[in-house]
């Protein structure tokens, strides 16, 4: 859905300034991410143009600036490398088909209204995941900076075969100098001119005037990107789907986290599902034109917001400004040293590691620490998908255990001697049968695991007693709870003991009927109220006496 209604004349000035400022910040990153991905600087530039334009036009966060980012670049670099190795002829085309497919998945997420669920991932998993991406970015810049990969460097260090020329040369010194500049550039000046732009200008001037022999980005063509149809490769199809889901998930997380940041700053509310549709449209089109996948970029979005951008027009203008710069001055990227882009990404990699979590690691529960560190290690050693899936699985196991503990509050097991919250007449009836009747009060849904624990508790307390299950406060149980209750009932009946049901409302009765649970209990043992059941038990136990 086009959001033209958000544009108005009163905000145009702020949107223009926001777009200009965010463009200055975004340009070095678009170049750096493009080069690092292996697809070339132009792929990063057109990612900023295409995802930035269409995500703003169709998205759900007014001042959102979209483009290439760290996690997506790491993932895309791995996908490109893997696909080209497996299929040299179609590998590149298959990788960009993945981007288009990821966009379609993202649009599907939005249509199915799944946006709210993506921000519920456990914090230790997010922390380990983003920190792992930071480590991967740092490792990926070893080769552009030192001429050898991180693995080769480690091997050479261990064997003592690394030379001084590899560690100290003009490319290394330029990169480390730019990195130092990025860290030392004052924050008050950073608001006026970003440190990345200063580093880019300094490194370019050094290359032009010194005549040093260092690798450069190379000129970017002023021609618009060509349209490429998606390809189908039977050998890669399963990996393509898996990779597309990874890209869609990463873009979704980045975009929605940025949207939440915007909400906190602007006191506005974004539309998560519409945002996913917008990001999906942007990524789908980016893949068709050979661009990297993109997502909401927090730093660029906040820059836009603080410079005055408040409507989708700022994101659209941001994309158009980048396009104009590339078409007008793309040839000048031939003078930009690769080392400065490595420095920019090293700064990004170091910055996104969750140092705040690591500094307080001794104060954090052991499980959370283990979850964060294991996700980090798996992100680096295995892959991002496996890391997130295992991290979420482990976090959910703990969540289920904690929910089970909370669910126990919905259950009360008593025999009349305890201080139950019952009306006086019912309490007296139960106390008079304390040696023959066990009351199980259920006030809400329970899980199957809780039921098994409860069954053991019933067995420990039960000494040939009739089990009265009271559902007077349970207006909903669900199928899982019905199965759990069924196990308790069946276990009790198998031991030759009576089971009485009280206060089964119509909605609960429907759940029970689905599993034919009520057929297991004699009709005379099913009552509309707890008092009726207690009265029946009191009269019958008196007769037996």
From TrEMBL:
<dbReference type="InterPro" id="IPR002645">
    <property type="entry name" value="STAS_dom"/>
</dbReference>
<feature type="domain" description="STAS">
    <location>
        <begin position="437"/>
        <end position="537"/>
    </location>
</feature>
<dbReference type="InterPro" id="IPR011547">
    <property type="entry name" value="SLC26A/SulP_dom"/>
</dbReference>
<feature type="transmembrane region" description="Helical">
    <location>
        <begin position="39"/>
        <end position="58"/>
    </location>
</feature>
<feature type="transmembrane region" description="Helical">
    <location>
        <begin position="93"/>
        <end position="112"/>
    </location>
</feature>
<feature type="transmembrane region" description="Helical">
    <location>
        <begin position="167"/>
        <end position="185"/>
    </location>
</feature>
<feature type="transmembrane region" description="Helical">
    <location>
        <begin position="309"/>
        <end position="329"/>
    </location>
</feature>
<feature type="transmembrane region" description="Helical">
    <location>
        <begin position="12"/>
        <end position="33"/>
    </location>
</feature>
<keyword id="KW-0472">Membrane</keyword>
<protein>
    <submittedName>
        <fullName>SulP family inorganic anion transporter</fullName>
    </submittedName>
</protein>
<keyword id="KW-0812">Transmembrane</keyword>
<dbReference type="InterPro" id="IPR001902">
    <property type="entry name" value="SLC26A/SulP_fam"/>
</dbReference>
<feature type="transmembrane region" description="Helical">
    <location>
        <begin position="197"/>
        <end position="220"/>
    </location>
</feature>
<keyword id="KW-1133">Transmembrane helix</keyword>
<feature type="transmembrane region" description="Helical">
    <location>
        <begin position="335"/>
        <end position="357"/>
    </location>
</feature>
<dbReference type="Pfam" id="PF00916">
    <property type="entry name" value="Sulfate_transp"/>
</dbReference>
<feature type="transmembrane region" description="Helical">
    <location>
        <begin position="70"/>
        <end position="87"/>
    </location>
</feature>
<dbReference type="Pfam" id="PF01740">
    <property type="entry name" value="STAS"/>
</dbReference>
<feature type="transmembrane region" description="Helical">
    <location>
        <begin position="369"/>
        <end position="395"/>
    </location>
</feature>
<dbReference type="InterPro" id="IPR036513">
    <property type="entry name" value="STAS_dom_sf"/>
</dbReference>
<feature type="transmembrane region" description="Helical">
    <location>
        <begin position="117"/>
        <end position="139"/>
    </location>
</feature>
